[in-house]
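pinging the channel bc i need a second pair of eyes. not urgent but kinda urgent?? the chain im working w is below, pasted from the shared doc
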Amino acid sequence: MIPAKQDPILITTIRENGAESIVDWFEQHKQSFYILGWCYLRNQQQIEELFYRSILKVKKELPRFKNETSYETWVTSIFIHICRELSDDTSLQVSEGSEQHKDLFKALYQLKQLEKDAVVLTYIKGIPKEETAQLLQVSVEKLKEHLFSGIQSLKKELGYGSSFNGCKEYHKDYIDYLDRTLDRSKKIELEKHIYHCQHCQEDLGTFQDVMLTMVNLTERIEDFHVPFGFMENVKAKLAERDKQRQQKHKKRKRIGIALASVLALLIGIEVFTRTFTNLYYTWTEEDPQLRAFLQQGLGERLNLEAESNGIKIRIKSAIADDMQTLVMYEIEDTAKDNQYFIDYYEGVAVENKREIMDQETYQTQYFPDIKSDENNKVKNVFHGKMSLRPLITDHGTIKLKITKLLKLFDPSSDRNRLSYENLEYDTGEWNFEIPVTKHPSIEYALDGKTEVEGVQVRFDKLKIAPTMTILELAVNNGGQQGKRIENLTVGNLEVNNKKLKADKYGSFFTNQHTDWDIFQTRFDSLFGEKPKEVSVQLESVNLSIDDRKNIPLNLSRGFPQPFEYAGSTISIDKVEIGRPTTIVISNHKVENRAYESFQFNIIDEDDNQIESMQMGSEGVMVDKNGTKYDLNQSPAAYEEVEQPRYFATVEKIKLHGEDTTESVIPKRLEIHGYTTTKYLDDVVKISLD
């Protein structure tokens, strides 16, 4: 998929005819850009939004287009930029793209941003490395580093193993060697070395397999059929936008006068209340969290409003620090008795985030507080908060665009029983320019150590910011053979006799590239507190245990075929040879079971690992007291589950061969290890350096 050379006649035609020619050009190239979109996005609606925004952006930027690159490469750079804005880098979902290549899409979603951009532009879009480096604003050598680390990550996600075992000094030459651009002397040296080094042979072979998997995606582009009516949907959206812009133009003068009056009133209020800040906000602000921020001078009332399709959004305030930018909002349904909240991952875009926000930080997620007093007062108003990434400057204006809201479903008149079942999205367009000022955080060095299940744990830092508190600890996963901590759940943090409960969804690893893995847990803010005494209560640890075992698959015997593993009896219920070959493994007994799930490979009759496996599983959730929960219920049912464990009960595996005309014959099940959760009740007292 090599970009076309520059066509002066094409550019002239597009400049003269404007949007119509741009849409026609996308119509002609929709197939290649459609597959490119699936490398970043999850569903059909996002792809349509991607084409829609790209056409608008190309139209806007066309006067500044120069002939330094081909038109297609220039459009691709815009397309990729919008892909980044729309992409979802947190919870992974199965792509709705080609079934044949969904494992590759799933693996691509896991890559870091620059790794993904480098891999997609170079191998899937087929842009030369020099031009790709220019688009990504990096050197060619840096691009190769991103390509290598990206392919290494893909190698793990596609089931080729987690690391390269060959000689590191030759890793930098793999890409140029396979692209046949390596200097002749280095090529000869590498080939001599590979001849004598089995590890490097295996490394280079799997490295090439991953590259070929990506190249094969472009060669099999005929598998990707753009759905009927796809471009018609995009064109309809463009037409609707033009209609709305004409209507907005007529209202602009009236809105301007109204806003000027409101602004004058707000300025008057601010001058009057400056002396009586605490008392004033105590009387006038019902939201206790926002009231605390305002009283400490960490934010200001904004009251920015936008309305679309009868739904009014009001941005109440925005508080920025080194950890996040917290936006507090209110949504009112002026036509019906519905409550809506903002789902950051659906229909929310910060249009200038590349200019003002730190793109390397983790995105904090807040779930709607459906039980708060505020959200149970009236049926058509919802109060919520949304986290955006922190600013890279001390001051800035966030250009926030919202196009979709999630409607909460109320199955009864009891307002405390709002559930997540049957959630629906309502669309519209709400635009805001939000002024923010970043406030500094304070970092304290800690000196605390303990052991959890024989693994060393070190407590390093306590970061106190206006909007949250972060406890940073390190886990020595490189120091314990056969065992590693995958997750460590912190219960409470106590500082100066003030006890804070850990955020249920606010724990994550931030660095896993050394023996010591860095882990962070989020709590409510302790801003203004000077820590003197700190203690941490640990609740549970999720462990990965190495425990290898080979289980032969005897096709001449009947099924089920039971075997013992980790103190349990597991059943191979079925092995059905076909295209694909199907294997079903089960263990429904979860009481006192040591393992929650196990990791395995399937080996074929030629003693080769079967690479193409489609996995599906069933399971049950069990709380600390042994109570089971049906996973077919709403996710809201698990909000109150105490320290849940998930036990896999059925594994369904489909095996695909490279030759689709032949069936895969499995020979044995190769188990590598299993995961398990241990409950803790340890309290670690920590001193401050």
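so The CA atoms of residues 366 and 386 lie 6 Å apart. and The mean pLDDT is 80. — does that match what u expected or am i reading it wrong
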